[in-house]
Amino acid sequence: TQAPVKVAVTGAAGQIGYSxxxxxxxxxxxxxxxxxxxxxxxxxxxxxxxxxxxMELDDCAFPLLSKVExxxxxxxxxxxxxxxxxxxxxxxxxxxxxxDLLSANGAIFTAQGKALxxxxxDDIKVLVTGNPANTNALxxxxxxxxxxxxxxxxxxxxxxxxxxxxxxxxxxxxxxxVKKLTIWGNHSATQYPDLFNAEVNGKNAAAAxxxxxxxxxxxxxxxAKRGAAIIAARGSSSAASAANAxxxxxxxxxxxxxxxxxxxxxxPSDGSYGVPxxxxxxxxxxxxxxxxxxxxxGLSINDFSRAKIDASVAELVDEKKAVTxxxxx
Length: 329
Ligand code: NAI
Prior knowledge:
Blueprint (H helix, E strand, L loop, with lengths): L4 E6 L4 H12 L9 E6 L5 H14 L4 E7 L2 H4 L5 E4 L11 H22 L5 E4 L4 H10 L9 E3 L2 H15 L6 E2 L2 E3 L7 E3 L4 E2 L2 E2 H5 L2 H13 L1 H9 L5 H16 L7 E6 L11 E8 L5 E3 L7 H23 L4
Parallel strand pairs: 1-2, 1-4, 2-3, 4-5, 5-6
Antiparallel strand pairs: 7-10, 8-9, 10-11, 12-13, 13-14
The chain binds 1,4-dihydronicotinamide adenine dinucleotide (NAI).
1,4-dihydronicotinamide adenine dinucleotide binds next to helix 1.
């Protein structure tokens, strides 16, 4: 059998963690032949709850789960890890200003970036789910100078999946007919889900919808505000779907994307599509079977899309400026 892949998950005792860990351990992340060693990081007060989750992992007797280690010290938990899913973050609480939120998360992601830089395996890939995900990823990346910048991604796959589901539902087709969907920009309310380059049944998705008012006034805000709609309905934020997207992003990044399609990944910009270098922004990406991603090139961006992408990227530039001023990067 193959050597286990060491997978770190932070915020492992949280609600996303409760869905994520069991699916990783059951083989959904790296397939049915790849043993996994889990490395779970939590803050000290949550370690007791995390012990309970580990008891449940034990009670599943997952054949692929070779070992579970837990702790509150990132330099121990991240030692030798190959894949890191940074889920734990400080949520915005009542009365908290944006600067407070960025500072609180800055403290978490500077420390975790430094720890990964010091002890992770050479092939480390880091995916940030914890919000504000793009900027948290940028903070971790900036604090890990020895790890290639492109190994730091942020999650927009949930937005991608939400958009696929909305358009499939609108057109009454199975989700499998929707391809080449792109989320551009920030994982926030300014994100831009692009139907103009997407396909439904091999035909242009925007043309198939043939209703620009629906795209602008229904589709885009429904996708962008879906997180808030779930909180309003469920009383807590999306967790199982966020865990699903985290697994799908990391699965595709490790093993490749299918022929004839692409996925949305927030990656360090190389200047493609006029997105300035130095921010981590969502793009259409393909991944080779060796686990190397590239931004899909040559898509045409119409004026409507251009304005939406520019607005979301401007927000990322602004967040970067704020964390630079706070001395976090
Ligand atoms: P949660 O509050 O249930 O769990 C977060 C866990 O992180 C807690 O157990 C907490 O103790 C832990 N944590 C806090 N600071 C930590 C640190 N320094 N090191 C290790 N663990 C730490 O939250 P939930 O629902 O699991 O969500 C986690 C994050 O994911 C939130 O920031 C949320 O906004 C974000 N999210 C992102 C989505 C995306 O599409 N990018 C979608 C849904 C949620």
